[in-house]
Amino acid sequence: MYNKNVWEAVPGDTWVHQLDVRTKLAALVCCAVLVVLLDSPRTLYLLFCTTLVLHGIARASWARWRVLLLFVMLGIWGSMISQALFYGQEPRTVVACLLSPAVPLIGTLTGGVYIYREGLEYGAVQALRSASMLSMGLLISWTSDPRQLLRSFLAWKMPYELAFMLITGLRFLPVIFQETAVVLTAQRLRGFEPLRSLAPRRLIQTAFQTLFPILARTLRRAVTLAFSVESRGFGRAVHRLGLGRWPQGQWFGCVLLLLVLLSLMVLKVIDALQFNGIRYFPELRRFYDLMKVWM
Amino acid sequence: MNKIVELQNVTFTYQQRTRPSVAGIDLAIAPGDFVLLTGATGCGKSTLLKMLNGLIPHESGGTLTGRILIGGQDSRQRSIAELSQQVGMVFQSPDDQLFSTTVYDETAFILENTGMAPAAIASRVNETLRLVGLPDKQDASIHALSGGQKQRLAVASVLAARPKVLALDEPISQLDPRGAAELLAVLEELNRQQGLTIILVEHRLHEVMPLCRRVLLMQEGRLVWQGTREEAYEQAPLFEHYGLRMPQPVDICRLLGVKTASAQVEDAVAAVAKAYPVPWQTSQPRLDSLDDPALLSEPAIEIEQLSFRYERKGQQVLDAVDLVIPQGQFVALMGNNGAGKSTLLQQIGGLLKPGQGRIRVIGQPLTGLSRAVGMVLQNPDLMLFNHTVTQEISFALRQQAAGFTWSPQCQQLVDDLGLTTMLDDFPLALSRGQRLRVALAAVLASRPPVLLLDEPTTGQDIGHIKDIVHLLQQYTRQGGTVLFCTHDAEVAARYAGRIIVLCQGRVVADGRPEAVFTQEQVLHAAGLKAPAALKMARQLYGGTALTVEEVVDYVQQKCLGGSAG
Amino acid sequence: MKKYLCCLLVTMLAFLIGATAAASAREEIPFSLQLPYDLGKNRAAVKAGEQIQALFSIENRGLAAMEQWVTITLPAGVDPVGQQDNWQVSRQGEAAVLARQVALSGGYSQWFDLIPLKVAESAGPGTYYATVACNGQTRQVPLKVAVREAATAAEDVKLARVILPLNSDGKPDERLNQNTLVLRDRQLDYFKNVLRGKGATNLEVEAIHPVTHMALEIDNPAGQQKLVVITVRLLDAVTQQPAAGLFTPGSTGEDKDAGSLGGHENTLMSFSALTGETTQRIMLPVFADERLLSNGQYMLQVHMDDGLTPPLVHNIPLTVVKKDVKAAGVVGVAVVTVLGAFLTGGRYIRQVLALLKIRWLVTIALFGAAAFAVVTVPSTLLNDFFHILLGPFGFIVTGFFHSIFLYTLLVALVVLIPRPGVVALMTLVRMLLGMLAFGQISPLTFLAYGLHALLLEGLFAGGGVYRRLQAGQAGQEFAWRYILVVAVICGVADSITTYVNMQSMAFLYRLYYADWYIDMLVAINGFAYTAVGAACGMLLGSRLSRVGGD
Questions:
Q1: Structural domain count of chain C
Q2: Residues of C in contact with A106 (CB under 8 A)
Q3: pLDDT band at B177 (very low <50, low <70, confident <90, very high)
Q4: Per-residue model confidence (pLDDT) at position B200
Q5: Nearest Cα to A294, choosing from A37, A8, A6, A43?
Q6: Residue of A172, A208, A211 to mutate when probing chain C, most C C-beta within 10 A
Q7: Whole-angstrom Cα distance, residue B491 to residue B472?
Q8: Which residues of C251-364 form beta strands (DSSP E)?
Q9: What pLDDT does residue C94 have?
Q10: CATH number of the domain that residue C135 is part of
Q11: Of A141, A207, A230, the CB nearest to C436
């Protein structure tokens, strides 16, 4: 996870890499809307799988798969377990009793700990939503040149300095991750186990010991990078080139994606109308069945 | 004289400092010149360089007096963006100054900032990349480049705007020998063929001096000497006085009283041979054995058939490495970047688990981090995390024994490393050399039997290197074992008792320095160069002397019958 | 001979058929008397003076309708109590006799009755027999009477405690206020249900879903078993007059008498059994009609009546939260403020950015990235983990990351670059990185980040922090008093942000938390942790400001 190469955007010749950054950002936004729009676990699962397929097409390294899976699995696990244990809505079905209320002290204190089936399902659906977004986010940050992102943000009227800051953050995020790992290693080498205990004093000590070197390095890097970009004419007075033409095919694809999204929204409304008994179109019977399963 | 850069009585003081960092500088540089600006760490040479493209005073603040004329125009009257069209600036760290992820984008950045049309940018980028020897790397990731390639890209990223001056701030200090050679070759080419004016700040004189035409020497903000390269060779004692390392052939000639206008080994050999009838060495020293008394002692590190790769199907980083390092030995681990040096150190340090094979430290199998091993990482900054130097040095001891504060050994360490006056200072606010010394002291304080150092000489001037080596030698004399990675052949040859050369994860040479450095094919394959002194000794009298002193002693003994001289 | 033999055989056959028919006629009218009829645990014996029940049951399994006369003769010392509407009670000597005609229709029918009885105080230990006669059969049913223990003799049933709100498993949520009834706001149910795909708002369907659950804790030292009627009603806290709002879902079906909503208006009624446990908890679903209830303080009165002894009454104060105006107000103000600041900031952002050196911009961006690496990423990973481990108190650990570490970084940055806009820019970078790298996009995120940046900027500027830091020397050691001021400023800003965050969770997601929980969160996470983080940040910033370039 702290391997720098895992987090760095690396240019490639895959179809995903070749996509215009605007196309990818549009896909991210569509994905964000879609995960809210969809309720069907199987469709959400398919959406999530699609994002994984995109990672596959982008030929993500094994290390990247590991990081992606770590975040996704932790997220899914956390979400499902926490929802399974704390699911508060009705109805809910107990599928397992982890701790009987009859157990002295803990059982009495907790009132029993159960796993609820609906909680697991709800957690899984929520987790698929966040996992899809996470996967898309990582796909973009791993396959897009930060400067292409910079150009896209500029084309979309983000202040130049702000876009530059964002891209700088994105560019050096992997380096900071790696340095954090090195600092933690350095502490271990000197006989200090940083995460051995969660005692407040020790956590604060660890925080200080970790932040000191990372931030000092950050300050030195900031000086070099600022000097470097300023020395290359980075300024606010000069008019920069806008983004190149959005490839027509991709632009068309994005418009198509948007239209599909809008259509799905309309379909969702039509389905909701019948579901709520407001307006039912008999001729759409089969479609309603499909919606029930897939939306 | 036609001047591309002119400084008239320039003095500059940083904000919140009382003393000027650059004082009373008068300087003129002609177009097409290749100037080396040198001096000890902190002498103000980098500050002077930043004045050339307006970073000082536009960005840094502070007080600037005098005039700086770039292409005849006052730098105060022009913005950094405008000045960047005239003066391209390259910095020390290849990783920190690159901003994009592809070679093309990095090169195009400066052109986009000038508002150039995309079609023109593409052809200019192509042309520029060809100039720096990266014509086929347009679409490559900058992360896939070697250190030398990154620095060449940094040069391309400013060269694309076709500046008249290229200013470089210690560009080779963090490169391996191959990377440094690549970059210097490009600079020489640009200067010679394109007529580009180059101003290079560097204290590794032995590597860059042969390229430059003029040398400027700074000390405490002032220009204390300037002249041609040849004049500089004659002023070698002055440079040595300021802690700068001259090329070894120049030093040998100077100590033998031979005049030379070149730092090339062949020229120096010819000059010495002309002045001295040096006899060929008849008795060849033993080159193949390590008969150091230390070998007789118990092994400190034993490595058997160690293999390792970071990813299951990835490249083999270490390949069946077998090594035994006895206690008390001072070992240099050499090889180009990617040879597996750092990985081997991390294996011994217990930071990585062997894929195959076994490691034993002081007779014990290594299963993880061990108190028997101390390690100084490549970037010592990331090892400093305490509020004061005192806390930093006593940190490991405090982890071992609660309530520990300070010991006479700690005091001895800080005295030896010249840190006595800065015990209450914030370690990360110290200079680079001081930071390395604090990190070293912090590791040595707990007296581990084995000490690993990952490129401790990178970016350090010779003065710092000497301090560190002196301390490490003391440590080995007391039974400690040192294994350090370095690219600096002169340092390794002079100080190490044994050199291990790694190439593509395999040990390709292992032995005494004179034995290793005489294996030219191995060195070539591993991207290393023998010290110039050894080359001179080989050519002059068929010897295996590793240091300037040894060559000089031999010549004087054989030709003058004594070592006085 | 054959003739006689045949006659004999026919006679025997007729007898057999007749006997079988008579037996089957009796089998078609099975009846039973269970004495005592246990409502909870089965007991071997009852005690003198105890109130018990007998259950008589009779069925008609034949095809024809019939009437049967039933007589139950109780042993001396066991008498029916209360009014016996279903039986004619007479006495034969000391024994009470209950009799009645039971009409049973054909096909299949059943009639049963629970008969409250009382064992006389004077009844001695031993086995007593009741006799039940029906359909020509007479059965004796034994009843064992044990000695009554003196200690429990005087202890009656007590309604010890009323607890709400609880979930359907009877578990309290520690974050929620006790004695508080949070009514679901059904005004937006239509949209909510549409969004959740739950179907149209059907007031009846919604209404029969309990708002919450309550528990009655009953002390029953004598182990009595009896049926009780529990009636729960709301009283005005001041006038003690009954207030409308609670109801018992009707059982008449959806199509008449207002369906489920047409039950017992204004009371929540339930039949329940005391099972003889010495302490018993009776769980009741609480149904409330939010159209009839308004916010405020009430008394919740619980009535428990067995029809024989004086009813038990227990009152507890109850707060009804119908629509959280406070949450809506707080969130509304926050949204308007953040939106206003965003629009104003958007107009001036270019000017602010132009005043900042590129070196500062890079530093801010890198600090934002560092904050993302050491705050956002660990929080994202650990939040779920500690939520599982520590439940609602997981914030005590995760607070280290998003309070202490974050403010350490943030204040250190302010010390390094004491310029207005620095906090806002770093927050913006952190938020955008989260959106881009992890797809973290939600209204709460915008509100929380926006308010956080706005309050800190405002308080730093208003509190003269920027001014004072600009006037100071780089690397200076700060006086403790000054560190305290900055810590308090940060603590106040984060406390407000935390509070608004909790209110927005209540308002947007209907997640209500107990006041004490909110107070604790604000005090620990919002103030204490943040203040510690800010103080650490001052220290860190002062050290880092001595770090120069190489």
A1: 3
A2: none
A3: confident
A4: 94
A5: A43
A6: A211
A7: 13
A8: 264-265, 267-275, 279-286, 296-305, 312-321
A9: 86
A10: 2.60.40.1510
A11: A141
Q: How far is B339 from chain A (nearest CA, A)?
A: 18
Cβ–Cβ contact C550 with B under 8 A: yes
Query: What is the rounded average pLDDT of the residues C499-528?
Result: 80
* Whether pLDDT at B563 is above 60: no
Does residue C309 share a domain with residue C167?
yes
Cβ neighbours of B99 in A, within 8 Å: 146-147, 168, 171, 225, 228-229
In this structure, the answer to whether residues C308 and C216 fall within a common structural domain is yes
- Tell which residue, A283, A286, A281, A258, has the closest CA to residue A270: A281
Query: C317 and C348 share a domain?
Result: no
Which of C87, C121, C148 is the last residue in one of the domains? C148
Cis ω before C221 (30° cut-off from 0): no
Mean pLDDT lowest for which of A147-156, B370-379, B465-474?
Answer: A147-156
Please list every residue in chain B whose beta carbon sits closer than 8 Å to the beta carbon of residue A174.
Answer: none
Which partners does chain B have (≥3 C-beta pairs < 8 Å)? A, C
pLDDT band for position C2 (cuts 50, 70, 90):
low
Predicted pLDDT of residue B412 = 87
- C107 and C63 in contact (C-beta within 8 Å)? yes
pLDDT at C20: 47
Q: Is residue B257 left, alpha or beta, with left meaning phi > 0 and alpha meaning psi from -120 to 50?
A: left
Query: Which of C306, C321, C336 is at the close of a domain?
Result: C321
List domains and CATH numbers for chain B. Answer: 5-246 (3.40.50.300), 299-538 (3.40.50.300)
Contact present, B378 and A186 (Cβ < 8 Å): no
A228 → closest Cβ in B91, B385, B399: B91
8 A C-beta contact, residue B122 and residue B138: no
A141 touches chain C (CB under 8 A): yes
Round to whole Å and give the CA distance between C37 and A178: 74
Average pLDDT score over chain B: 88
Looking at chain C, how many residues does it have?
550
Question: What 3-state class would DSSP assign to A95?
Answer: strand
Residue C298 and residue C258 share a domain: yes
Q: How far, in Å, CA of C525 to CA of B436, rounded? A: 39
For residue B497, give how far its alpha carbon lies from the nearest alpha carbon of chain A (Å).
26
Cβ <8 Å between A222 and C366? yes
Q: Are C405 and C370 in contact, with CB atoms under 8 Å apart? A: no
List CB contacts (< 8 A) between C547 and chain B: 426, 428-429
Residue range(s) defining the domain that contains residue C90: 28-148
pTM score of the predicted model: 0.75
Strand, helix or coil for residue C497:
helix
Which tokens sit at C64? 């024809």
Contact of A6 with A174, CB cutoff 8 Å: yes
CB B497 within 8 A of CB B491: no
Interface test with A, best of C287, C358, C397, C410 (most A CBs within 10 A): C358
Residue C333 and residue C370 in one domain: yes
What is the 3-class SS of B146-212, one letter each residue? Answer: CHHHHHHHHHHHHHCCCCCEEEEECCCCCCCHHHHHHHHHHHHHHHHHHCCEEEEECCCHHHHCCCC
CB count within 10 Å of CB C89 equals 15
pLDDT at B564: 41
Where b means 16+ CB within 10 Å and e means fewer, C135-171 reads beeeeebebebeebeeeeeeeebebeebbbbbbeeee
Residue pair B27/B6 in contact by the 8 Å Cβ criterion: yes
In the numeric block, which tokens belong to residue C34? 């269970």
| ipTM metric | 0.86
Query: Which of C475, C543, C548 lies closest to B387 in CB terms?
Result: C543
